[in-house]
Amino acid sequence: MTQLRFALAQIDTRVGDLDANAEAIMAYSRRAAAHHAQVVVFPEMSLTGYPIEDLAFRATFRRAAWDKANAMARQLAADGLGGLYVVAGTVGTDTESDKPRNRLVVLHDGVVWAGYDKHFLPNYGVFDEFRIFSSGQRSVVLDIDGTRVGLAICEDIWQDGGPVDELAGQHIDVLLTINGSPYEEGKTHTRYDLAVRRAHEVNAPMIYLNQVGGQDDLVFDGGSFVVDADGTLLERSPMFVENLSYFDFDKQAERQQIGTIAAEMERDEEVYCACVLGLKDYMAKNHFSGVCLGLSGGIDSALVATMAADACGGENVCGISMPSQYSSDGSKDDAADLAENLGAHYEVQAIEPLFQSFQRQLTLGGVAAENLQARIRGVIVMAYSNSRNLLALATGNKSELACGYSTIYGDAVGGYAPIKDLLKTRVWDLSRWRNKAAQDGLGLGMLPVVGNEAAASAKTVPSVLIPVSSIEKEPSAELRPGQKDSDSLPQYALLDQVLAAYIEHAHGRADLLADGFDETTVDTVMRLVDRAEWKRRQYPLGPKVTALAFGRDRRLPITNAFRE
Amino acid sequence: MTQLRFALAQIDTRVGDLDANAEAIMAYSRRAAAHHAQVVVFPEMSLTGYPIEDLAFRATFRRAAWDKANAMARQLAADGLGGLYVVAGTVGTDTESDKPRNRLVVLHDGVVWAGYDKHFLPNYGVFDEFRIFSSGQRSVVLDIDGTRVGLAICEDIWQDGGPVDELAGQHIDVLLTINGSPYEEGKTHTRYDLAVRRAHEVNAPMIYLNQVGGQDDLVFDGGSFVVDADGTLLERSPMFVENLSYFDFDKQAERQQIGTIAAEMERDEEVYCACVLGLKDYMAKNHFSGVCLGLSGGIDSALVATMAADACGGENVCGISMPSQYSSDGSKDDAADLAENLGAHYEVQAIEPLFQSFQRQLTLGGVAAENLQARIRGVIVMAYSNSRNLLALATGNKSELACGYSTIYGDAVGGYAPIKDLLKTRVWDLSRWRNKAAQDGLGLGMLPVVGNEAAASAKTVPSVLIPVSSIEKEPSAELRPGQKDSDSLPQYALLDQVLAAYIEHAHGRADLLADGFDETTVDTVMRLVDRAEWKRRQYPLGPKVTALAFGRDRRLPITNAFRE
User: Fold this and answer.
1) B residues 35-74 near A, CB within 8 Å?
2) Confidence bin at A170 (pLDDT 50/70/90)
3) Cβ of B543 and A286 within 8 Å?
4) Which of B128, B194, B222, B455 has the most CB atoms around it within 10 Å of its CB?
5) For strand A100-108 and strand B218-221, is the pairing parallel, antiparallel, or unpaired?
6) pLDDT in tens, A249-282
7) Which domains does chain B have, with CATH numbers?
8) Does residue A557 have a cis bond before it (omega within 30 degrees)?
């Protein structure tokens, strides 16, 4: 046989939920087989979910994952699908050291071929894999009816040397990589460039299969693809949705056939979808069906509410207007208009009487009085969350969080902060993009993200979502008369540039000056950020006096469905 | 010369504060030289502070540390101390990879001998060193006037193989290790046993020099020591205080002379001191001179207030009684008595009127109403913190935090939680120990911890600190009529045993049953802990969509005195 059909199963998994993940793998395998695939490929650690953090250390979990993989292989054979090669990721155990391994396995002929162990273990940025796993030492070539398939897992292709280097000398026909690669702005092109380089090195087409979905504070964007050794794009799966597509490898052909190529998204759409998918999956995996949040009439809460309506439907969003004596009429109107546009519940809870009650006892002034208003709002939001079982959303953006322009236990209250990683200027950009998309017919809940596959066309499309005045008015916390953000912060257009350089690109003071920022701005922003970082760390910490303290030693993922 | 005098400088450092740390190193070096030491030894990364986390990645910081070390060497030479060997820890740079190194340097003759780079980089528990540093590859023997001194840094002696193994073949006279080893209950003996083994392996006395002080949520206990190759204890420094002592090595002698041996502490004293030092140093390094906290009359807040009075003096403790309609008269009296015993400020803020104001608007019932009371208290505590610049202390213990028996944004509010790592039964033990110590004459502020060296004898000694009824009464959150902790939790004597096994020793369900716990208790505790862990993770998280998100990518230590 010179033709081999690979099915690329870009799925969303649940950390620790072996049953649900196995079910998804079985269902996609059956679909792939029905479409005559001989190999079906699932993401890195797709059986266990990813990242599983310290769950990997539980021997009972590793045993359960192994048993589950074997049961799946037997079931496939019993269903007459023993001839299929199912490539999936799971947690393994190094027999020598008894340490966990990040492992690729192949289910075939009713058994589990313990396949390939990840070699390079990322331990930077969001990754802690060296902490958890031990390194695989061997490169592996899988022979499928005469087609030589070289194997790699995620980071293995990001580092020079190692398994891909070894595979280059082994005359492979296809390089197959399974990935759990989180979304970052601009990463699509980085991945593509890297893949082209690796495909060239091994002189074979490369399959890049990535997971999709939200997990804790990570969003995996999918966007799986296949490139040929000469850099030709042979397949591209869409981002942010589950997907099954095919790559027909022909060993005899001079050029591989080009399959389905999903359209690229524009940048604002990409980031907006990432935020909505993160929230939507966080809710689904933590069993929330609705959210509550404060609606101030400002742009941050407006964008968060809109994202929430896109994630779970406006009817499951509870917006709470909590005006004080300093809230403008315009703000109150904007909040009400937004709720109406979204089809959200809208309730008003004036904080003035509560504020007066506190002040009769405490007589606070200055910042303490401003914080008090924000904290009364926090108590109200949490009361809604507790009494109606709603996920409280915090509405802070990255610019204000970075500069400490926020009240701990006040507006920072919430179980999830959908825009905490968006600078203020991005908040405006995405708001404008979402309004424009609505005008172009993209109704609430119609975004191309996991779970929206069904009935998107049935949704109604409002002509405007976010009130224009929320986007255009000057930002204000409205905690004292006439207050403007620009009283305390540089203008956002400038601030965001400095923040990006200082926080995201780790430029030091000398670098920032060389970037062309003036000294006063640089020193102001550095002082704000450093102070905010210091304050942000003032959470309940205490000495570690026993073998294991909370929050520092034990690192478990949020969605832990595994029960021993 | 056959005699060599080592000075063991067990000091407290400040992360990122090169000036302050250099000043301490210079002062201790001068004192050591005045006492005829030829070698003076400082802890791991003593020039930079430890752990410096991602501060290591800043090239400007590494350059500043290098410049500072050179300036110190020149200054020592200028002061006529060029002949002294000053062994200290700092951050270095691997010239090949440009990555940070955890480095031991020797200042001598006016220059910096770039010495030894740590080989084993711990990346488990509280340690993230593999993330940050690259590994040193060489073992190093320092020849000091004919005495061969083998070098190692902390983790290097905890792993078999590596540098100590190499040193065993190199006929060294002394094994010198510098450490940043955090306190854990019972670790003193583990360290000693390990040192005896290593000293035996290299057939030479081993110097174990550890840092002291609190940093973030770690407490370093000092307790430096020297053991001979046959296991004889030759020197032991006290725990929890800065100290300078000496070890006279005699190459000709058959047995080394025994120096000063500090008395061992009993276990409760040790843990109590660790908690107080953690809080005291956290306050000092974050520039707080006073604290505020809610005083309920219960044992948790009573112990925290007493620790705080030991850390900063009763006159700097502000205790706030916040009774509700469910608070018993006994509780209110106990809170007042405690404050009087401690010499603390005491204020009463009834929450009933505030609770009624909220209820007029929100009409909450059940747990939401209970949480509302706790959150009103949280707002009040933060109002005191903001308006008087006091560090708010959270009073939760490990048992209730583990089981989720606490209100987020309510009683969990605070910048530091002194007893978050103590199980409830330990809270009672330490309270009894502290009361007994007071009877034996240990006044407030007289504890042997860093910063208490001066004027301890001048303090008055109260005959009783914690009201006996706070220790003896049945625990209750007092959030509804007649509520008792035992309504929701197993009895603490049993609960704490299960928690220790499940959380601290990572026993799974099968292990817990094999430990002899009954099935109902095991399932109850596991359910509570897993659910609490899930809820605890519901903090403002959001998707990571740009290159670097807060709280996940950037890991900076709290006390960041370094300014570029």
Assistant:
1) 57-60
2) very high
3) no
4) B222
5) unpaired
6) 999 998 999 999 999 999 999 999 999 999 999 9
7) 3-259 (3.60.110.10), 270-484 (3.40.50.620), 490-543 (1.10.10.1510)
8) no
